[in-house]
Amino acid sequence: MAAALLLSACGTPGTQSASSKPTLTPVPSSSPRAPVAVTLRVTVGRKPCGILGAAGVIWISNYGDDNVVRLDPISGRSIGQPALTGRQPCGLAAGGGSIWTADYGGNSSTRIDQVTGQVLAKIPVGGAPYDVTFAAGAAWVTNYTDGTVSRIDPAGDGVTTISVGQGPAGIAPSAGSIWVATQGAGPVSESEPAAPLVVRPSQPGGPPRRPARVLPVARRRAGQVPLRPILLTPAAMRGGMTPLALGLGEGGETQAPMGRAIIGGVITSTLLTLVVVPVIYTYLDKLAQRRKAKHAARAAAVPAPPLGLARTRRP
Hints:
Blueprint: E1 3-8, E2 23-27, E3 37-43, E4 48-54, E5 57-62, E6 67-71, E7 83-84, E8 89-95, E9 98-103, E10 108-113, E11 119-124, E12 129-135, E13 138-143, E14 148-153, E15 158-163, E16 168-174, E17 177-182, E18 188-191, E19 199-200, E20 212-213, H1 217-224, H2 227-246, H3 252-298, H4 307-312
Parallel strand pairs: 1-3
Antiparallel strand pairs: 2-3, 4-5, 5-6, 6-7, 8-9, 9-10, 10-11, 12-13, 13-14, 14-15, 16-17, 17-18, 19-20
Helix pairs in contact: 2-3
């Protein structure tokens, strides 16, 4: 016997209608193979938007009432008092012993204790927080109007802002990365939790291709892969040239300058490869990003999504 939990948006402001007795309504199945489904229809607050199952209860964000309610998954009755969030909460995520919300109208993310249902903190993020997820020990919130993703550290509720392009909406973790659906310059962006950065794939409708990784992860990975040969090859060269540079043996003083020059050149090239070139490339990349930011600032702002879009994304 399958069952579905439907949310009715017929509550009135200031009333705790979620505590009312739930009604069981049989619903005929559209498929002849499936058994008859029984729907538990529970009345909650105004404009329920997000729903999440965590800590053995059902969490529902009420966009119109600015709160999050808890329901017993068996009886459908409310548990405790609603948690008052920022304005217009929608997205929900669980992690780090807390429930995290994306407060679309409050430019904040509310942190709720998973056990007691008490509000722990209201953390300011970017403009129009759209969705939220929890991965790699942090909460990640998409800020639709700012074109950014906010990474919230649960240890001290510190916020790190990452630029991902215009209109970031949905967000989800996968394979060690954070994937963001953007509605502006590109369809999807990827951010790596260890070192936040954006990966921009092909434009909509274009042929699929491997995303090009941008700093700082590209720099870090480019250094990790050839690091061993970069260090071992010059080390072997210096070891072989040391006797020559010391002028050991008969007539060694005539060849010592060449050995010293080789060792100095190897050390210099190693420093250029590992330090100087990445630093110069980093500054050039920052300069290019600043120019892009200036051009983006002149462009028209992406309009905020209607509530219907945020609600239709969730079952």
